[in-house]
Specification:
Order of helices and strands: EHHEEEEEEEEEHEHEEEHHHEHHHHEHH
Radius of gyration: 35 Å
Strand content: 5-15%
CATH topology of the largest domain: Rossmann fold
Largest sheet: 7 strands, mixed
Number of domains: 3
CATH class of the largest domain: Alpha Beta
Structural class: alpha/beta
CATH architecture of the largest domain: 3-Layer(aba) Sandwich
Distance between the termini: 62 Å
Helix content: 40-55%
């Protein structure tokens, strides 16, 4: 459990304790041999002394008997005492080993049972235990758990005592990512990791902007939850989100030139409240659209390995049939912002990236829930087909078939895509993601840069995914009651 050498002093019971026992036993035998040597020297001296023959004989016999007594009885007593000493130490050590093993196991089971792990917001690598930093000397402790360096506390080489478990304050120490060295705001929280994927200009950043503002400013206060930004950089990011929200604008997700970095950024914040112990840490990843159109080797999205849900954004105007039909009804700004990449190619690229990270074979379905979100429905009459009024009209016309609002939304979204030549896309999603649901939304609510956001439908897909990711979220953020299984409604029935 401590395979890597640590900048710490080993516990007495795992280092010096063994040496002390060994030295005690060696000292006992050494004293025994010293006594033997003493009587042997006395025998030699009695032979050459100037005493009378009788005296010399008496001293000789006396020292021989003494030497034999030490050799026989002294050795026996020393051996018995040594065995007793070893037995006592063995029992004590066994208790200590059992105790630390139980504490280590409790600590590890707590992390696993609570689904606690560290997801680095920079390199996106996952680790169960980050590298903790000594507050006194800055030494890096890569395996700060109960072990040979200490059970409840570990003594750093500088003398500072560091907690080794979740229940005695380990999470309060500064920590860095063991893979890239990035400073982490680690609190041994439960991560909820949701990547937002899709081609360039499909509306991913606008969706994240609308969701973040709505969740932090409306959902959390209504639930009596407290939110806290992951670090100062994320706090600054939220200031930009607020500014974009007021202006109705978005910012392009930068694609870094450094081949060692992934083309994604995360907006990360803690959620604290009565239902959440430990607190939740939300990571929403904005992945540059070029990732799905450029097969460069640096585009390894590590977050796919551990994410609990995925949002796939679809720009309806990227669908050729829809664009040809509606382009004349769009504002010039909307036309300029149409994602031109082929949606089926985007999905294929995304699936390839997913396979790279997770090892998912072509024959296997992903267990990660997928929310397919058709955005920009405020433009060119799309809302008339899959918006609120269309959903309610469908429910009113066929109440025996359409009983649930979001099941009806799912049906209309699938119908919209099929009617516009995207049936292969739907089949591909159904083939690879056994748990998927379709949503319609508008993040900005109008043409960009035309005033404050007026979002519709951005919370629903995230609530569905949050509920899938976390049971406490499922029971606490329950504004929408999603059916566990979407009923299949044939077109002939409609």
């Amino acid at each position: 459990m401590a395979a890597v050498l640590q900048p710490a002093k080993k516990s007495y019971f795992f280092g010096k304790g063994y040496r002390d026992v060994g030295n005690t036993i060696k000292g006992a035998w050494r004293r025994n041999f010293v006594s033997l040597r003493k009587f042997k020297n006395n025998i030699t001296m009695s032979r050459i002394s100037g005493d009378g023959r009788t005296t010399r004989l008496f001293k000789l016999v006396l020292n021989v008997l003494a030497m034999l007594s030490v050799l026989i009885y002294g050795s026996i007593i020393t051996a018995v005492v040594s065995v007793i000493n070893i037995a006592v130490v063995f029992v004590v050590m066994a208790v200590i080993y059992l105790g630390f093993s139980i504490i280590w196991l409790v600590d590890r089971l707590y992390l696993i049972r609570k689904h606690i792990f560290t997801a680095c917001h920079e390199c996106k690598e996952k680790s169960l235990i980050p590298t903790y930093i000594c507050p006194r000397c800055g030494a890096q402790h890569t395996n700060l758990t109960p072990g040979v360096y200490g059970i409840l506390k570990r003594r750093c080489n500088c003398g500072e005592k560091l907690p080794t478990t979740f229940f005695n304050g380990r999470k309060n120490l500064d920590a860095i990512c063991p893979h890239c060295g990035t400073l982490l705001s680690n609190r041994e929280a439960v991560p909820i990791c949701i990547p937002i994927v899709g081609g360039r200009s499909v509306g991913k950043t606008a969706f994240i902007t609308a969701f973040s503002k709505e969740f932090i400013d409306e959902v959390a206060p209504a639930k009596s939850w407290e939110t806290e930004f992951y670090n100062d950089a994320k706090a600054d990011m939220y200031k930009e989100i607020e500014q974009d929200y007021r202006m109705g604008s978005t910012r392009m997700t930068d694609r870094p030139q450094d081949v060692n970095k992934t083309s994604s950024i995360s907006f990360s914040f803690f959620v604290k409240g009565a239902p959440f112990s430990p607190e939740r840490l939300v990571h929403v990843y904005d992945i540059a659209g070029e990732v799905f159109t450029d097969n460069s080797e640096n585009e390894i999205q590590k977050q796919y390995e551990y994410c609990q849900g995925i949002v796939l954004m679809v720009d309806p105007f990227a669908i050729p049939k829809v664009r040809n039909k509606c382009e004349g009804q769009l504002e010039p700004e909307d036309v300029a912002g149409i994602g031109k990449a082929d949606i089926n190619e985007i999905v294929d690229s995304f699936l390839n990236k997913l396979r790279e990270v997770t090892g998912m074979s072509d024959k296997n379905m992903s267990s990660v829930p997928l929310a397919v979100v058709i955005g920009k429905i405020d433009s060119a009459g799309i809302m008339d087909e899959i918006g609120d009024l269309a959903i309610k009209s469908q429910m009113d016309s066929k109440p025996e078939l359409f009983k649930d609002y979001y099941d009806t939304m799912d049906h209309l979204c699938r119908k919209f895509l099929k009617e516009n030549g995207m049936e292969s896309f739907i089949n591909n999603v159904d083939l690879k993601f056994k748990d998927n649901r379709y949503f319609a939304c508008t993040a900005i609510g109008h043409t960009r840069d035309k005033g404050q956001y007026n979002p519709q439908g951005v919370l629903a897909p995230m609530q569905w995914l949050f509920g899938k990711a976390d049971s406490k979220m499922y029971h606490s953020w329950n504004d929408i009651k999603f059916s566990r299984k979407i009923p299949k409604i044939t077109e002939s029935a409609v």
